[in-house]
Design brief:
mainly alpha; 43% helix; three-stranded antiparallel β-sheet; single chain
Length: 141
């Protein structure tokens, strides 16, 4: 019994032919990044498609807006013959680093707790996130 190819495998197979259209690119597993905007609301982007970003007052709105932006980005690229990058392989998308914007008061509280426990802020954040995810964290002093 043969399994269905993943969206990434479909992209790799399509490199062998020229039948790529808007529907094809919309079916690919592009990564979407959502983060709080400094002025309020949310910014959302598709990192593999340079300049493809949008924003919204709430998460749900931002996620709807990025789909519209992705469609427009892909349409323009197809019409102008611009090269369209494929999605990053999943194992390439996790570097172990990310940017997190938090309220100044929370930053202060976390920094104070890290100092009190004689660990770095990164170590404390890793411990707290691991605990929240149900992992077995430990703080190494």
């Amino acid at each position: 019994m043969r399994s269905n190819p993943t969206r990434y495998q479909k992209w790799e197979l399509s490199l062998m032919n020229d039948t790529k259209n808007l529907e094809y690119y919309l079916s690919l597993p592009y990564k979407i990044m959502l983060y709080p905007a400094e002025e309020g609301g949310f910014v959302v982007e598709v990192p593999e498609l340079p300049g493809c970003l949008s924003q919204g007052e709430i998460r749900e709105e931002a996620l709807v807006m990025i789909e519209d932006a992705k469609i427009a980005w892909l349409q323009v690229a197809l019409e102008t013959g611009r090269e369209i990058p494929g999605p990053a392989k999943e194992e390439e998308t996790y570097s172990g680093k990310f940017v997190l914007r938090i309220p100044k008061s929370l930053h202060k509280d976390l920094a104070k707790r890290a100092k009190d426990e004689n660990v770095s802020l990164n170590q404390l954040a890793t411990y707290l996130l691991s605990s929240a995810m149900g992992k077995s964290p430990s703080i190494k002093k």
